[in-house]
């Protein structure tokens, strides 16, 4: 009789958060579905469900390995964990002694629950040269919300807990409905649409609900700040702002009014390419039909004016009084376990550490706690970077950073690099050592990606393959060998420590794992905090002025414009008209698919079957103008290089632009080209020369390109011919 | 009793979760899907329409596939589900041609190279051989998760209401675009939707009378007041008691004010 059990856990196939129910028979997961008794009500996406295929992949890394050939040769030798960890510790120590503590860099991919481990390790090693993708995803938003309202974790209140749902919703460069990244938000968002009066989609490319929404605005990529200024102009000129809120709770409204004066609907239309009628209509809806909220997507943070874009959008929220009101933008109350990030925040970021951050002299907002990765790349190439040892987990900097050629050249110069991952990939091939990590179905951990209103438990469902280990174990072991005073006896103690604040200080990992979730929802949520003593005695926001700050003195002190200001992208029809003649298409790489998560999952057959090759989307008229047709393989070129993607014509996209599929490498390609990272990845085309003054973010979603059709001869790479991995349905002889 | 499904085109986000859930549920071979997503993207006089039609076997009430099957392998159950008995199927593929919706797949060797060709079958596939065997050389298609329905009804559960008696795709859809239930019961969710929302059946003119219906619409135009259930979030297990927690966070706060 086979033995069956059911294990409840939390998915982490994206940022994560969906409750999961797995049926295990004799140690093998035979079924996976959502857990109905959680916030996600039993739903799951294709990525999470395909985990069942993911964990069984024969291509998983199973043992620690060291490189025995040259980089990119793909020659590896199995070593023991002891040898691996001792080598890392020795390299760290040697580098610290020789070049100083700042010579150690630690990098991560997008937040996957390991954030707190890498930051704790970095701080315990006395370095702040952490490479995080935050500056192109989420940090600008948190930073600017924080600057304006004093509190960074401002989210759309889709829940109805305060008695109202958002009446007007703006989805700005974001497809929350496909939950590519934010599981539980997706669920609430879609539910809230049943109670929504106006849905406004702002996206140059039609997302799923664009053509069913109340309004759909298609701005020219990179012009979003101008659009926000234009909307504020309408609100001011028509006297639609929230008088009570603005008068009593904000600072600097008069200056802001003056600043946006020039952004008439006519001028805004000229800059953004959005018809002025739509700009006016959107502004009116947002200001009149309140409460309302704005969900921004990280495409806005992949632009070199992202600081001011986010700042303008935040001002727009405040002007309409869409702050802290049920159904508007609300800051979360923390779960009883507290901020799980205390796990690293409790170790100080000393002025000494901070002073050594690469890029801190320029990017005062983005490089205050972590380094500016693009500046680091340039510095390494100039031989000026202090960094010599790189500990990398999960992320594929080679894939997601601008200007792939330079990123590769810089990484190849590292003295010692170790990469932790589930599979071989570009970063692993550039490393001296790879460590196998466990999939989320194979580990115990605290889920905390968006430490807003809940944290949840990942409960181990199956054993990891070979000697793969959890992130907590790996980082604790490295920590024990390099900074023992800050680390724990074992993994269990480390987990206990993270939930220690729960149950009035008595909670252990075991209690938490049984209960699955700790959170604040329903009546736990507190609204209108600024009207009470919540942040300040007598009311107010936790800012320097105690107000919602349209004008930011703090920004002025840091040397930035205290009011929002629009800047053209580094390359654009208006900023570089000469270049535009040669590269007549505006390109974005903001397009995300529901079944991929950033660079992940092209090696999971079930998921790869949904999109075999990267798509470059163009309006049929635009494609025709440049002589390419649906289904053609096309070259896309920018001043930095050229790539190939498959042309897909799509009427739901702004004319005159091309939307490339981002983060694409071919796991099935050999190590010699870093798994095909130069074949189709849009970052071969992006520039790392023009960065956001506050955050150092490059223009990944707004640049210029040109296209033409590939010849048959130009499709000789293996990936166009082989059937390797069985990802795709294709005849071998082609 | 006639099971049917109503699909809300307004909500479907083309997320592909239903496809994945179906693959997991039925241990589907690598290159087989029982649910497909059909993209509908048009532009007419400047008006763009981007929609997605999730398509699966319609469990047609007048099913041509049943009529053409020479061995009786394809049959319609009393509850409307069109099922294939693999043991009786001789692989003639008449039904594949007869289905006007291309919802049937003949399971050839090519469609089943294993999840990772060139490697041994995965543990999950091995388990599938016993738990949900597929017979090469026969046809296959969506069966409305009839094993879930049969399990559920045997345990007094209501298909379309109780998860364990409801198709896997319906359970997983984050957009809640899929509704399942008994078309013969006027009080069921599907009957209600069909009454209220002017549904569409695919190629109705063929006379197949599909049990899968599509409803269309726009988003918005609703009232934003939250019903009481939405305000409590009480169906969820969590560690802190609401009152105690609120007091701790902010002692002066009076609940509900
Ligand atoms: S949305 Fe994210 S958390 Fe939810 S199932 Fe998918 S990958 Fe997992
Ligand atoms: S799971 Fe739901 S939203 Fe996603 S593709 Fe299927 S029907 Fe559409
Ligand atoms: S959709 Fe096709 S396979 Fe399904 S019942 Fe109708 S004719 Fe038969």
Question: What is the H/E order of chain B?
Answer: EHEEHEEHEHEHHEHEHH
Most extensive interface: A-B, 101 and 80 residues
**Percent range for helical residues of chain B?**
10-25%
**Strands of chain B, total number:** 9
**Beta fraction of chain B:** 15-25%
Mean pLDDT of chain B: 91
Q: Count helical runs of chain B.
A: 9
Question: What does this protein structure show overall?
Answer:
The complex is a heterodimer of chains A (734) and B (257). Chain A has 734 residues and is α/β, with parallel strands linked by helices. Chain A is 29% helix and 17% strand. Chain A folds into three domains: 65-136 and 337-519, Rossmann fold (3-Layer(aba) Sandwich), CATH 3.40.50; 150-333 and 527-557, Dimethylsulfoxide Reductase, domain 2; 577-716, Barwin-like endoglucanases, CATH 2.40.40. Chain A has 27 helices and 27 strands. In chain A, helix 3 packs across helix 19. The longest helix of chain A is centred in the N-terminal third of the chain and has 19 residues, at 81-99. By secondary structure, chain B is α+β, with helices and mostly antiparallel strands. Chain B has one domain (3-254): Alpha-Beta Plaits. Chain B has helices at residues 17-25, 64-68, 94-98, 123-131, 146-154, 168-172, 189-196, 228-232, 242-249; strands spanning 3-8, 36-44, 47-55, 74-76, 82-84, 105-106, 139-140, 178-182, 212-215. In chain B, strand 4 and strand 5 form a beta hairpin. Residues 253-257 of chain B have low confidence and may be disordered. Classes of the chains: A alpha/beta (734), B alpha+beta (257). At the A-B interface, strand 3, helix 1, helix 6, strand 20 and helix 25 of A face helix 1, strand 2, strand 3, helix 4 and helix 6 of B. Residues 57-60, 63-65, 82, 99, 101, 103-104, 141, 208 of chain B line the site of one iron/sulfur cluster (SF4). One iron/sulfur cluster binds at residues 57-60, 63-65, 82, 99, 101, 103-104, 141, 208 of chain B.
């Amino acid at each position: 009789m086979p033995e069956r059990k059911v294990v409840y856990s939390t998915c982490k196939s994206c940022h994560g958060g969906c409750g999961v129910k797995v049926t295990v028979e004799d140690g093998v997961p035979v079924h996976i579905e959502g857990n109905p008794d959680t916030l996600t009500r039993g739903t799951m996406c294709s990525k999470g469900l395909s985990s069942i295929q993911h964990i069984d992949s024969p291509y998983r890394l199973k043992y620690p390995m060291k490189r025995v050939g040259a980089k990119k040769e793909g020659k590896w030798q199995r070593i023991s964990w002891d040898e691996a960890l001792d080598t890392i510790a020795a390299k760290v120590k040697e580098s610290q002694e020789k070049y100083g503590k700042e010579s150690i860099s630690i990098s991560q991919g997008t937040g996957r629950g390991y954030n707190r481990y890498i930051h704790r390790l970095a701080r315990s090693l006395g370095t702040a040269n952490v490479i995080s993708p935050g500056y192109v995803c989420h940090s600008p938003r948190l930073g600017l919300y924080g600057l304006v309202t004093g509190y960074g974790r401002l989210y759309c209140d889709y829940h109805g807990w305060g008695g109202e749902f958002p009446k007007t919703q703006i989805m700005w460069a974001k497809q929350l409905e496909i939950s590519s990244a934010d599981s539980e938000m997706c669920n609430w968002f879609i539910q809230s649409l049943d109670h929504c009066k106006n849905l406004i989609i702002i996206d140059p490319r039609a997302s799923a609900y664009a053509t069913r929404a109340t309004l759909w605005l298609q701005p020219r990529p990179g012009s979003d700040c101008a659009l926000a200024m234009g909307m504020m102009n309408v609100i001011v000129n028509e006297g639609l702002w929230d008088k009570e809120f603005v008068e009593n709770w904000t600072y600097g409204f008069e200056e802001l009014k003056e600043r946006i004066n020039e952004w008439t609907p006519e001028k805004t239309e000229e800059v953004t390419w959005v018809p002025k009628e739509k700009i006016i209509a959107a502004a009116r809806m947002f200001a009149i039909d309140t409460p309302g909220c704005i969900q921004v997507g990280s495409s806005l943070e992949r632009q070199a004016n992202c600081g001011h874009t986010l700042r303008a959008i935040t001002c727009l929220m405040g002007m309409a009084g869409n702050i802290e009101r049920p159904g508007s933008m609300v800051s979360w109350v923390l779960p009883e376990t507290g901020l799980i990030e205390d796990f690293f925040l409790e170790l100080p970021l000393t002025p000494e550490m901070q002073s050594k951050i690469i890029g801190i002299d320029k990017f005062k907002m983005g490089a205050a706690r972590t380094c500016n990765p693009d500046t680091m790349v340039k510095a390494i190439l100039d031989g000026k970077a202090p960094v010599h040892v790189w500990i990398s987990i999960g992320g594929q900097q080679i894939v997601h950073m601008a200007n792939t050629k330079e990123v590769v050249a810089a990484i190849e110069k590292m003295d010692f690099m170790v990469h932790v991952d589930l599979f071989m990939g570009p970063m692993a091939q550039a490393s001296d050592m790879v460590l196998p990590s466990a999939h989320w179905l194979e580990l115990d951990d605290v889920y905390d990606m968006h430490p807003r209103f809940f944290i949840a438990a990942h409960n181990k469902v199956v054993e990891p393959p070979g000697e793969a280990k959890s992130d907590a174990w790996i980082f604790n072991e490295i920590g024990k060998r390099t900074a023992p005073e800050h680390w724990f006896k074992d993994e269990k103690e480390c987990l206990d420590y993270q939930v220690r604040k729960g149950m009035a200080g008595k909670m252990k990992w075991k209690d938490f794992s049984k209960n699955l979730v700790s959170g604040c929802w329903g009546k736990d949520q507190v609204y209108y905090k600024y009207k009470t003593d919540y942040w300040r005695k007598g009311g107010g926001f936790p800012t320097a002025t105690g107000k919602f700050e349209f004008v930011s003195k703090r920004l002025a002190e840091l040397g930035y414009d205290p009011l929002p200001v629009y800047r053209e992208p580094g390359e654009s029809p208006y900023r570089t008209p000469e270049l535009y003649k040669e590269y007549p298409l505006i390109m974005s790489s903001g397009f995300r698919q529901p079944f991929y998560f950033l660079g992940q999952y092209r090696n999971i057959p079930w998921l790869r079957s949904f999109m075999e090759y990267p798509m470059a989307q163009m309006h049929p008229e635009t494609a025709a103008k440049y002589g390419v047709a649906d289904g053609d393989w096309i070259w896309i070129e920018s001043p930095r290089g050229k790539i190939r993607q498959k042309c897909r014509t799509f009427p739901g996209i702004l004319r005159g632009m091309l939307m490339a599929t981002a983060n694409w490498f071919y796991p099935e390609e050999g190590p010699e080209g870093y798994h095909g990272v130069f074949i189709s990845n849009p970052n071969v085309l992006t520039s790392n020369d023009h960065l956001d003054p506050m955050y150092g973010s490059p223009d990944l979603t707004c640049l210029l390109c040109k296209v033409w059709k590939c010849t048959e001869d130009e499709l000789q790479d293996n990936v166009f011919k082989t059937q390797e991995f069985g990802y795709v349905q294709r005849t071998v002889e082609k | 009793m006639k099971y049917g499904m109503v699909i809300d085109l307004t909500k479907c986000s083309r997320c592909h979760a239903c496809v994945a859930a179906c693959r997991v549920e039925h241990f589907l071979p690598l290159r087989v899907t029982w649910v497909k997503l059909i993209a509908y993207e048009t532009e007419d006089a400047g008006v763009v329409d981007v929609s997605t039609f999730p398509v699966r076997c319609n469990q047609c009430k007048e099913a041509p596939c049943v009529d053409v099957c020479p061995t009786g392998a394809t049959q319609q159950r009393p509850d409307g589900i069109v099922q294939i008995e693999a043991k009786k199927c001789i692989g003639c593929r008449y039904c594949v041609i007869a289905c006007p919706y291309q919802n049937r797949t003949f399971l050839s060797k090519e469609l089943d190279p294993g999840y990772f060709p060139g490697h041994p079958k995965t543990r999950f596939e091995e388990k599938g051989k016993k738990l949900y065997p597929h017979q090469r050389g026969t046809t296959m298609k969506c069966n409305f998760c009839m094993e879930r329905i049969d399990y559920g009804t045997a345990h007094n559960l209501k298909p379309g209401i109780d998860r364990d008696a409801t198709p896997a795709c319906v359970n997983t859809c984050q957009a809640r675009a899929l509704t399942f239930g008994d078309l013969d019961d006027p009080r069921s969710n599907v009957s209600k939707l069909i009454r209220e929302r002017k549904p569409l059946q695919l190629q109705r003119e063929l006379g197949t009378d599909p049990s899968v219906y599509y409803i269309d619409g726009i988003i918005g135009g609703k009232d934003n007041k939250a019903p009481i259930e939405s305000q409590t979030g009480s169906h969820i297990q969590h560690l802190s008691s609401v009152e105690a927690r609120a007091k701790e966070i902010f002692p002066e706060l009076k609940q509900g004010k």
